[in-house]
Each structure stands twice: as C-alpha cells, then as structure tokens.
Amino acid sequence: MAGAAQPLSFTLTVPFPSCLEAQIAHDTLAPDAEPRRGGITKQLSVNRNILHVQWQADEARILRVSVSSFLDLLSLTVQTMDRFGPPLDSNL
Amino acid sequence: MTVVIGFEGSANKIGVGIMRDGTVLANPRRTYITPPGQGFQPSDTARHHRACVLDVLQEALQEAQITPQDIDCVAYTKGPGMGAPLLTVAIVARTVAQLWKKPLLGVNHCIGHIEMGRLITGAQNPTVLYVSGGNTQVIAYSEHRYQIFGETIDIAVGNCLDRFARVLKISNDPSPGYNIEQMAKKGKKFVELPYTVKGMDASFSGILSYIEEAAHKMLLSGNCTPEDLCFSLQETLFSMLVEITERAMAHCGSQEVLIVGGVGCNVRLQEMMAIMCKERGARLFATDERFCIDNGAMIAQAGWEMFRSGQTTPLEQSWITQRYRTDEVEVTWRD
C-alpha cells in the first residue's frame, strides 16, 4: 500500500537452455531503467543459465504495469532467439 | 563493403531495412492502421509491432539474400518516438546483435530521415524540411550538427492533419494524410483558416482547434464540402511550411531544399515548395513514399554513416529515449 514502510516486491526466475542465452536475455532487457521518481525499482541479474528479476514498488498498480510489460518483452527476446538463434560461435 | 541492418518502429510503422554501401538490399514495412476516427495508442502499436517484427526481419533477410554473417552492424531507432513501440523494436535489435555477435548502433530517427533523403536525392548540403506525424523542423547542417533553425512550437504538422482526418472520419488506410491529399484535389472553395508563423517557427494547434470547432457547423450549413476543408487546410499548412523554409534558406544562403518525413510525400507540398525554389533559383529534392514514410533502410543508412565513422553503441547504453533532438547528435561523418 502507498506510504507503507514495507514496499511490495516481486521476484521472477527464468531458466534458459544455456548460460549464454540467459546472458543475452539479461543484456537485452537490462538497459532501459524504470522511470525515476516512478515509485518502482527493477534489478536484473544472471546466475549461470537463470535470469533473475527483482522488483520493489510502492503501489500494486505500478508493479503490475512494469511486470506485465517486462513479460511481453521477455517473450519477444525468447521468440527472437528461437527464430534467429542459436547464438553464433564467436570463434567463427 | 559494409552491410548495415536497420530497425525502425518509433510510430505506427515497423520496418527492417538492409543497406550495402548506398544500395537498398531490402526495405519491408508494415503499418498499424486504426479505424476511422481513431489514432494509434502506444500499447496497441507496440502489440502490433511485437506481432510482426520477426516476420518483417525474416522478409528483409530473404529479400536481401544475405545471411546474418554478412551483416557488419545492427542499427535501431533510439528515439525520438513513442516509448513502447521503440522499446519493442530495440529488444529485437539487441537480441540479434548478440546472437550474431555484431556491434549495435542507436540512431536518431530524424537523422535517419535526413541521411536517407541525401542518399536518394543526391542533395549535397540542403536546407531540410522534416515534416511528419511527430516532427516539424527546418534543419541545416553546420559545424558537425544538424542545427534546428525553425520548428513547431506545439504539435507536428502531420499530427494536425491526422487529427483533422479523425474529425471528418476520413480513412487511415493507407494513411490519413494520403486520403486528405486526394480529397483536397476536388476542393474548390478556399476557407480562411488561422495562419500562425512566428519567425522560423510555426504553430499548428490553434488551426486544429479552429477547424475542429468549425468543421461540422460549416458542413451542416452547406457552406463548404469536406473536400473544400481538406484543400483549405493543406494550402494553409503548406504555405506556412514554405514560408519558414524560405526564411531559413535566406538565413543560411542555401540553394537546395530537401523535404523528408511522411508529410513530405504529399505532392501538393512538393509543388508549393517547387514554386518558391524556382523563384529563388534553388533546387528542390524530395523522395516518394518508400523513403519519406518511416522505414528501416533510413535507419540502416544513418547507421552505415555512423558506423563507418567509428561509432557504435555499447549494449548497456542502448536504452531508448522518447525525446531525442536532432541537434543532440554529433555528425562525425560529414566535413
């Protein structure tokens, strides 16, 4: 709730077929920050083949919008990897 | 040889273009068309782009007959534009750049229009009129910047036309501006509208409010036809654009005009500009709808110039931005 001492939080864990694909998803989704003074923060990290996303927000409404649009973009980067992957070998 | 792929999706068009040293290898595009009376909203437009961006990408690669290995750089529109559609397209560009191990390059949308216009028309150092649904600027190159000499002080000229089309429920297919242009050809009576030029700047919102308020009354009373209104609005808006362009030309001592942006494919605007150019002994350059209207090749072309001059965008700096002025970009590829 607004003004509550404890913010709302949401955690998302997404496994990928490989560490490289998890890293690609992370680097694709990380550059765009949440709006400043938006009452929300989002942190992305990668552990091996797992993408972790952690949100903290003041209001459920703001959290819902951010998570929902993130899921759309996550789905798009996964679809792009499916159609235009697998990642090229850097030694080529 | 340098091959650059460009992704554009800052408004209701989604395009992927591939350029190789000044040659357009492919430039497919889709347009999100809304019903008459309705504009395009950011989230619906982003949904449209998400649904077809990968098909358009595949089409571009097939048409160009190249493989991802042949590409040297992945360019995408960094801004300005609508946030959600911009982000959708940037996500795909970032993903393929990593899959294919290619450098990424964020391009200013306005610079894309200018560079594509210069390439297609061969204009050397023109005064540029950039007119579209989101932008209205008079630009000239100086000291490694595209300097903005004049611009709208409120809404874009194309936004004024689009919203007028909604008032009359004119079809958005293929675009409201195209349909206004066709109706205007049948207009006979000139209805006087406000004319608002301030130096090298122009204002369009007052004209829109005026015509929104007056249109139905005038039509109901039989004073004029929808065609007369289309004609009168075009004549008024385009006169203003010609006036501010001429003032910038006089200021810069320029003898070339280049019209770019979606409104730039309007033949009546080109005719009016040509009359002014003739009187001044200047040359007019314009392109057709393939390159005037937002497309991927223009982002690839600006990307080509930027990449060849040594620019790339690190992934962590590849965020999109809804506001991104033309004169923020250092033009490293021109003398």
From TrEMBL, chain A:
Keywords: Cytoplasm, Nucleus, tRNA processing. Its main location: cytoplasm. Pfam families: Pcc1 (PF09341). One of its GO terms (biological process) is tRNA threonylcarbamoyladenosine metabolic process. GO terms for cellular component: cytoplasm; EKC/KEOPS complex; nucleus. It is found in: Cytoplasm; Nucleus. Component of the EKC/KEOPS complex that is required for the formation of a threonylcarbamoyl group on adenosine at position 37 (t(6)A37) in tRNAs that read codons beginning with adenine. The complex is probably involved in the transfer of the threonylcarbamoyl moiety of threonylcarbamoyl-AMP (TC-AMP) to the N6 group of A37. LAGE3 functions as a dimerization module for the complex. Belongs to the CTAG/PCC1 family. Component of the EKC/KEOPS complex composed of at least GON7, TP53RK, TPRKB, OSGEP and LAGE3; the whole complex dimerizes. This is L antigen family member 3.
TrEMBL record, chain B:
A divalent metal cation binds at residues 109, 113, 130, 294. Keywords: Acyltransferase, Cytoplasm, Metal-binding, Nucleus, Transferase, tRNA processing. One of its GO terms (biological process) is tRNA threonylcarbamoyladenosine modification. Binds 1 divalent metal cation per subunit. Substrate binds at residues 130-134, 162, 177, 181, 266. Its cofactor is a divalent metal cation. Its EC number is 2.3.1.234. Residues 29-300 form the Gcp-like domain. Pfam families: TsaD. It is found in: Cytoplasm; Nucleus. It comes from the Eukaryota. This is N(6)-L-threonylcarbamoyladenine synthase. The lineage of its organism: Eukaryota, Metazoa, Chordata, Craniata, Vertebrata.
